[in-house]
Design goal:
Elements: H1 2-36, H2 40-54, H3 59-81, H4 89-128, H5 131-137, H6 142-180, H7 185-194, H8 198-224, H9 229-259
Helix pairs in contact: 1-6, 2-6, 3-4, 3-6, 4-6, 4-7, 4-8, 4-9, 6-8, 8-9
Length: 260
Amino acid sequence: MIQILGKPFVALGRGSLILASSIGRWGALTAEMIRALRHVDVWFRLLVPQMARVGVDSVPIALFIALFTGIVLALQASYTFTGAIPLYFVGVLVGKTMMLELGPVLTGLALSGRVGANIAAELGTMRVTEQVDALETLAYPPVAYLVVPRVLAAVIMFPVVTALAIGTGILAGWATSIQLLDMSSAEFISGLTLFFLPFDVTFAMIKATSFGFMVASIGCFFGFHTQGGAEGVGHATTRAVVVSSMVILVLDAFWAVVLL
């Protein structure tokens, strides 16, 4: 009976140890990445191609999500405000929500699936096929060659993609308001600027930068520690996406508490 009752606590303890070990190994990889920044000759020439893969190739999916998010926000705002609040408050809701919350978070979640999975699968495949070991044999620092350019590219490009997504969402909300809600451009812009603060943009960029760092570093971590062949690569990719998404939501709450 005692053993049966104790199983949940055993599982909880085992899970806590695994979590603590994973956080420690991720921290060690992050520290090694910071030390590897001195190898500029290794990672710098790889930075621009990685920026194109992380940022430019991710623009279509980010804009697609932002487009329909802006449309839905405008329609739902008009439905909620009917008869109670002036309709120009649609601009307030679309602008604030896209900048402070949905723009950065939805973009981060979409890119965690695309960028994080891609990084984990690529590095995981290199690990199980011993290409990482080959880099060490050739005297190339693997972290400087594989991790640093990917993480820096994500840190640089996530805010850019997020800014484009925010702009697209607001434009979609404006177009929806003009065409479907019987509003004028002046009314929408009046609402958009009513409670606008420059810090709103800063807040969105801080969130996007932190999301980029976490998505790329988590993808690199799971890729670097892949074991078990093709099946292991699949598991690493899945874990990278799941953990990145969870961390994005935690960071979203963290920055709201700290900065707002």
